[in-house]
Specification:
With about 425 residues, this protein is α/β, with parallel strands linked by helices. The chain is about 50% helix and about 10% strand. The strands form three sheets. The protein has a six-stranded parallel β-sheet. Helix 2 crosses helix 13, helix 8 runs parallel beside helix 9 and helix 11 runs antiparallel to helix 12. The structure holds manganese (II) ion (MN).
């Protein structure tokens, strides 16, 4: 954790300028009929889970360049996440990957996290690579495999993940399947999907009443010809066949270039099956870059759909927000602070959309003014609203500046032997 005095002193450097910026923006927004305090309250209530696999420097298939003072085990990762939560007030939960970050004693990890004011979001299973000591290989798939014994092993792993999650206090499991084929003819396209659904049904049956299961789609990689859960349509078919506890997870990077992701989000909301998000950003494929770094307008348009659904009170609408990134070049803590900031800004901007004016322009087919209504919200500099929300949560006005000033990373670099710990790739 960072000492509170570090945050207080960092805030003092920005306090006066922030107060004046906030008052000026509040006055501007008032002229537009927006109550700044109301937006700040919305931002303050926004929470996003940090994945356990994002705290160490990631890598590509070509190499990894480790940073100094990286967490060496899951307990140290909890501490890093608690620093992000301290500075932003927005990351009170962890999304744990099993087996990469599986604790020997889940209850001990739960207690350790609780002492750091952290709880647990969705647990993540992994049947996309073979684990040490595992009997059957997933080389040709897990839930879709032609051999029932391989499928059984994959189901048992997922049931185990649910059990660990129960101890941690999780309420959901995310299943991302790498299953698929690289060549035409390799796999029976319909039967492999049926086998996958049958396995998911067994996991679904074992879920506690208050749990949800998320299926995550991805068009390609590692399967280059036909991925089983290739698109949101396949994911929706699974969620609908499974039942009310199943929903679809939208990983922003799991789409082909130029896919209209906000439209995917809208369709899943209509179907009552938007389970949540894996936030990241991409230029080409599953790049796992910082959320909002490449397509910030797209991120805003996604949040616009979310705020619109909440505004309308769509029944059963309660998406779960999680980050899924790989930090290859940036300090992972700094990259996550930047991510949370970008998420809060996109959300704040979506809160500024004049929805009654937009509805009128849509009714009148006034294309230009309808678009302008979104642009006006998007182009507003909401930094003071986001900073104010963080300050009210006892966080930092400028989290990255406060983190750098705290000397946290240098202190950990001294305390931890660099290079001793090799974190896994992102998923
Ligand atoms: Mn993901």
């Amino acid at each position: 954790m960072i000492h509170k005095s570090h945050i207080a002193s960092a805030n003092r450097n920005h306090d006066e300028a922030h107060r004046r910026d906030f008052e000026h923006l509040a006055e501007q927004l008032q002229r537009r009929g927006v109550d700044a305090d109301e937006v700040v309250a919305h931002i303050s209530a926004f929470e996003v889970a940090v994945p356990s696999w994002a705290l160490g420097t990631g890598g590509t298939r070509f190499g990894r360049f480790p940073g100094l003072g990286e967490p060496r085990d899951v307990f140290e990762k909890m501490e890093a996440i608690s620093v992000i939560h301290q500075l932003t007030g927005a990351t009170p939960t962890v999304s744990l990957h099993i087996p990469w970050d599986e604790p020997d004693d889940p209850a001990a990890l739960r207690d350790h996290a609780a002492a750091l004011n952290l709880g647990f979001d969705a647990v993540n299973s992994n049947t996309f690579q073979d684990q040490h000591g595992q009997h059957y290989s997933y080389k040709f798939g897990s839930f879709c495999h032609v051999d029932a014994a391989v499928r059984e092993q994959a189901v048992q792993h997922n049931l185990h993940v649910v059990e660990v999650g129960k101890t941690l206090g999780s309420k959901s499991i995310t299943v991302w399947l790498a299953d698929g084929s690289n060549y035409p003819g390799q796999m029976h396209l319909r039967h492999s999907f049926d086998r996958t659904l049958d396995c998911l049904k067994r996991v679904y049956k074992a879920l506690p009443d208050d749990w949800r299961i998320f299926t995550e789609h991805k068009p390609y990689e590692p399967a280059f010809y036909a991925t089983i859960v290739q698109d949101w349509g396949s994911s929706l078919m699974l969620a609908q066949a499974l039942g009310p506890k199943a929903a679809c997870l939208v990983d922003l990077g799991h789409h082909l270039p130029n896919t209209n992701i906000e439209l995917v989000v809208a369709r899943l909301i209509t179907a009552g099956k938007l389970g949540g998000f894996h936030f990241n950003d991409a230029k080409y494929g599953d790049d796992d870059l910082t959320t909002g770094s490449i397509k910030p307008y797209q991120l805003f348009l996604v949040f616009n759909e979310l705020v619109d659904a909440a505004h309308e009170g769509v029944e059963g609408f309660h998406p779960d927000y999680m980050i899924d990134q790989s930090h290859n070049l940036k300090d992972p803590i700094e990259a996550l602070l930047q991510t949370v900031d970008n998420l809060q800004k996109a959300y704040a901007k979506a809160c500024l959309v004049d929805r009654s004016a937009l509805a009128e322009y849509q009714e009148e087919n006034d294309v230009l003014m309808a678009e302008q209504t979104l642009k006006e919200a998007y182009e507003t500099d909401v930094s003071p609203l986001v900073a104010e929300a963080r300050q009210r949560l006892s966080g930092a006005l400028d989290p990255i500046a406060a983190f750098r000033a705290s000397g946290y990373r240098a202190e950990k670099a001294d305390a931890r032997a660099a290079g001793a710990y090799v974190p896994p790739q992102s998923l």
